[in-house]
Amino acid sequence: MPIKTQALVVVTGTSSGIGRATAEQLAAEGFHVLAGVRRQEDADKIKRENIEPVIVDVTNIETLKALAERVVQDPLGRPLRAVVNNAGIAVNAPLEMVPLDEFRRQIEVSVIGQVAVIQALTPALLNSGGRVVNIGSVGGKISMPGFGIYSAAKFAMEAINDSLRREMSSFGIKVIMITPGGVSTGLSEQGITTAERLAKLMTPDQHRRHDRLFDSVKAQAETWAKDGIRPEKVAAVISRAIHDRNPRTRYTAGRDSALLTRLVRILPDKLLDRMLRSQMKLQ
Ligand SMILES: NC(=O)c1ccc[n+]([C@@H]2O[C@H](COP(=O)([O-])OP(=O)(O)OC[C@H]3O[C@@H](n4cnc5c(N)ncnc54)[C@H](OP(=O)(O)O)[C@@H]3O)[C@@H](O)[C@H]2O)c1
């Protein structure tokens, strides 16, 4: 049912996957979506009724200032109902060899960039009593071999999400974490391409130790790309988080996420180690 009063919603990383599906879902519901993209060609592709592309690179503070300005100067004076912190990348490689600049790139985009978006939009969120919806991952609950760098970013976002929620609750800003499991998007392919590039940097010794792990990471990412839920399902969960009158602090998206987020709280580390290593055929 379309809502009668339009409000603004910001979604970052809308060129593809979950971000694009979310922008489309929220626009269909009647929100005016400010859709973050990095390239003009992606802006041209996503532009339509209720979707206004905005050039946003979460690592570029000038683009975030321009976004905040766009929100505050809205010609119709619409309130900012929510910011969906979705943009992300995946750097997958064994920890003993991952180049530190690649680690920094993961953190820059998936942690510092997310906080930069929150900081830029906080004045508007305070004004409107808006919501922050952070897109986490089951990787922020459980750290699989080969995915430690990505998980480091997503675990960090869990901490940031929880502190922010506790800091802002008395000021009318609700902070919600969405935890998807495997989702069929281009992220898997991007992660595989990065892993293949990084694999070439290994020494012969590292190859002996980690070739199998690289194969497992690739196979796992391919499984998520093939069998993961559709990004539209995650978009529907994000929509709930924005609409629910009294939203939960976190929502899972996908059965794998619902199961793993519970298991990780009750299973001992050594059993989880065996499960994960066996799932990735590393035993
Ligand atoms: N796919 C999964 O299985 C899965 C599972 C759990 C959580 N997630 C999370 O869901 C979110 C969306 O991922 P997705 O699966 O939809 O992947 P995706 O299709 O690869 O989308 C990632 C989006 O982030 C954008 N992005 C990357 N770097 C950026 C930057 N510096 N500034 C602004 N935007 C940037 C990309 O834009 P460009 O096209 O310009 O690169 C793209 O629009 C991520 O936070 C991811 O960690 C995904």
TrEMBL record:
Coiled coil: none annotated. It is an enzyme of class 1 (oxidoreductase). Gene3D superfamilies: NAD(P)-binding Rossmann-like Domain. Signal peptide: none annotated. Its EC number is 1.1.-.-. Keywords: Oxidoreductase. Residues 7-184 form the Ketoreductase domain. InterPro entries: KR_dom (IPR057326), NAD(P)-bd_dom_sf (IPR036291), Sc_DH/Rdtase_CS (IPR020904), SDR_fam (IPR002347). It holds the Pfam family adh_short. GO terms for molecular function: oxidoreductase activity. It comes from the Bacteria. PANTHER family: 3BETA-HYDROXYSTEROID DEHYDROGENASE DHS-16 (PTHR43313:SF1), SHORT-CHAIN DEHYDROGENASE/REDUCTASE FAMILY 9C (PTHR43313). Belongs to the short-chain dehydrogenases/reductases (SDR) family. This is SDR family oxidoreductase. It comes from Paenibacillus rhizoplanae.
